Amino acid sequence: MSLKVDLVRDHSGLQENRQARRYFAKFEKILEYLPRIAGEMERDGRLTRAELVVVGGHLDALGHTFRALSHKYLMTGRDTGVFLGSLMVDRHASGFPVLQELLSMASDAAQADDALARLPDVAELKRQMIQTIVGERRIPTHLQYAMSQRLYLDELRQKDLFWPRNDVRMQVLPGSGTRHLLHWSAWDGQRNLPVIWLMEVEDVGGRQLPGDFARMTRVRGHLMAQALPDLKLVTVATGFDDDFEDIHPKRLQRLTVGPMYSSAFTLQTEGLGKVLEAARAPAGEDWALAWTLETLVSRDTTQERAGWFSSVEKQIWDLPDMHAGNTGATRIERAAILPERVYQALTETPAPGFSDVVKYVVGDGRLWRAD
Which long-range contacts (CB under 8 A, 24 or more apart) does 216-221 make? Predict the structure, then answer.
């Protein structure tokens, strides 16, 4: 089947106003829990404190992206006199917006200043809306649309959003001054999922990365080109180790947020359909979110010859058994975030593939790990 047909089948627009609002409200609630999940993983030793802070920053950016899109599509299904379109969601593979939504958002951001210059400010739009309601006794739909686009463009101008590609940034780790945490993220266009990468490196060069623009530019270019979601971690890390003789990767992680499953917005193909149906959860509680953390660790080093009179350090990766070797990671941890009612249904109606998944249960503002 061609890609074009798959897109038609698997991607659908949220064309009704209430449906769009429910979708964004659901994700707003889900995204509130994710930093707390990351905190639990830090307490369990799966993330360091520095990694927790970095992951939190990427999750905040993801939340800002959803907030921007919620403003953009606030008037979905309303007669505004303008063709709005509708948010395109990958209902089969992820439950998240499709990559094209983020590409369009990035294009809008490049023109945000010019577009904002043509719009009244928020205070003026509110004044005109009140005048229309009180003086003309009609719903100011056109002004509401202008306000939604004003809020959307204001959000884009913040620039702290999760874009299709978020370039490599660096944090110096405490200690010797030679350890750095590189981090970047991207929207996986094949699965339509946000992916966050973290790499701890040791820099043995004469001039450290924070002050070496030329080397840092090479590092950014390499990682953004090679760190693809379908590559194994050991492939990415080994390629980096081979290309940079004086920068040694010690730990590489890939965090994939999603898929999101919901009886209202996705097609359930992995057994969760029956679970969500059995849960009979109210709107806003009928969902589950997958969360996968892959980790590769260097357990030792070896010296390899580099020419006649020199050698270079190479990493020996911790791949403890055949299964881990096949996955290219030291360990892979899959988790699911579930509202309490859905978790109860899952215990009574097991779903294939979820028996070995760590389950974090949320409800009434609480979060706990179900062992």
Answer: 216/170, 218/244, 219/168, 219/182, 219/244, 219/247, 220/167, 220/168
The pTM of this model reads: 0.91
Residue 334, classed as helix, strand or coil, is strand
Angle between helices 49-72 and 99-110 (to 10 degrees): 80
The three-state secondary structure class of 367 is strand
Distance, CA of 282 to CA of 87 (rounded, Å) = 23
pLDDT per residue as tens digits for the range 96-120: 999 999 999 999 999 999 999 999 9
Cα angle for residues 192, 63, 334 (degrees, 5° grid): 55
Whole-angstrom distance, CA of residue 342 vs CA of residue 168: 37
Neighbouring C-beta atoms of residue 138, cutoff 10 Å: 8
User: What is d(CA 225, CA 100) in angstroms, rounded to the nearest whole number?
Assistant: 20
pLDDT digits (tens, 9 = 90+) for 72-88: 998 886 655 455 678 89
Cβ contacts of 244 within 8 Å, gap of 6 or more: 215, 218, 219, 222
Mean pLDDT of 289-306: 86
Contact call for residues 59 and 33 (beta carbons, < 8 A)? no
Q: What is the mean pLDDT of the chain?
A: 87
How does strand 311-317 pair with strand 247-262? unpaired
The secondary structure of 133-157, three-state, reads HHHCCCCCHHHHHHHHHHHHHHHHH
Token pair in block for residue 241: 């180790």
- The total number of residues shown for the chain amounts to 371
- CA separation for the pair 200, 183 (Å, rounded): 9
- CA 34 vs. chain centroid, Å, equals 10
d(CA 325, CA 317): 10
Q: What is the DSSP letter of 97?
A: B
Angle between helices 141-158 and 122-135 (to 10 degrees): 170
Task: Give the three-state DSSP class for 370.
Answer: strand
